[in-house]
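agent> fetching stored inputs for the magnesium ion docking request
agent> found them:
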Amino acid sequence: MLSWFKKKDNSPSDTESTAEKTPSAEHENNTPSLKGKGSFLAKLSAKLDKTKENFTYRLDTILLGKKEIDAALLEELEELLVTADIGVATTEELLESIRRKVKRNELSDPEKLKDFLKKEIRKYIVTSEDDTTQAMPKKGPFVIMVIGVNGVGKTTTIGKIAHKFIASGKSVMLAAGDTFRAAAVSQLKIWGERNGVPVVAHREGADPSSVVFDALNSAIAKNIDILLVDTAGRMHTKDNLMEELKKIKRVMTKKLPRAPHETLLVLDATTGQNALSQARLFNDAVNITGLALTKLDGTSKGGIVINICREMNIPLRFIGVGEQIEDLRDFNAEEFTDALFTEEK
Ligand SMILES: Nc1nc2c(ncn2[C@@H]2O[C@H](COP(=O)(O)OP(=O)(O)OP(=O)(O)O)[C@@H](O)[C@H]2O)c(=O)[nH]1
Ligand SMILES: [Mg+2]
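agent> prediction call returned; pasting tokens
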């Protein structure tokens, strides 16, 4: 879990590598045991079922019984890729590389086409995978500010991330920076109770920056490892929202110069292309360092993963595959494509 903590540290001098501190529980999903890996994959594959119905199994139907890769087949493939929300540009590129291979006689068997697609799709995702490093600061908590429009799953994702950190032995605190609705604070408090972690909250309508400032002070005083900051997804206007987020960041910096160490944008996979426009909008306003894509279990448009990785040069950290506390996965290109292309139904 939390793969970006495992990567080698080459960050500036006030950080240190946590590689040695990473508890073994974090490696549970990377064990070489085929059996373990198999069931892990099978579970992910089952969660992606709607996308598989719409993409993988339809791809099988298109390829079934075909003798050659001709224009008609490529047309069907094009429609399939576009409807799976892989994106027009990505679809065109994929088709172009298939045509090139076919022309050079390097690809003629429709059965091999599936493998080729899988490899190409993985390449898109891998190239966008993170090689920047994030590590625990020497002083103060590692601060993760979670942003996104309303309803995408910010608060739920915070609850799930807290669970992952707790499982790996880290101490966690939550900050209720969404003061726009009273219910937002109580929802975060429920996640706090579920995880057994403290929640710093003020009352509805309070200044989110002051909540976050208090939370930072408290986290530093209590030697907390990870501070997760919830934010509002809705303000009176979009500009208000962006200004609010910028202000929260500014206030944090006053207390901890490098905070937030991660600005995590949560996107809802069921909104398809809309997720991409949100990513651009937020990134223009506040510099996003990581993405979480939720509700992949509820959509047939899981191809959006490929689209987002290709279009946004921001690492996809997590995918949400359900409403339960354990339904958050570290995103891994290989696992994802394996799960997407596994045969079992
Ligand atoms: N199926 C599914 N549902 C999810 C997932 N992540 C979140 N949800 C659900 O999405 C709904 C909205 O989640 P919240 O966490 O309240 O979203 P939010 O972004 O905090 O919303 P606001 O606070 O209103 O801005 C809830 O019903 C969650 O249970 C996921 O990965 N899969
Ligand atoms: Mg919320």
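agent> quick read of the result: The radius of gyration is 21 Å.
agent> awaiting further instructions
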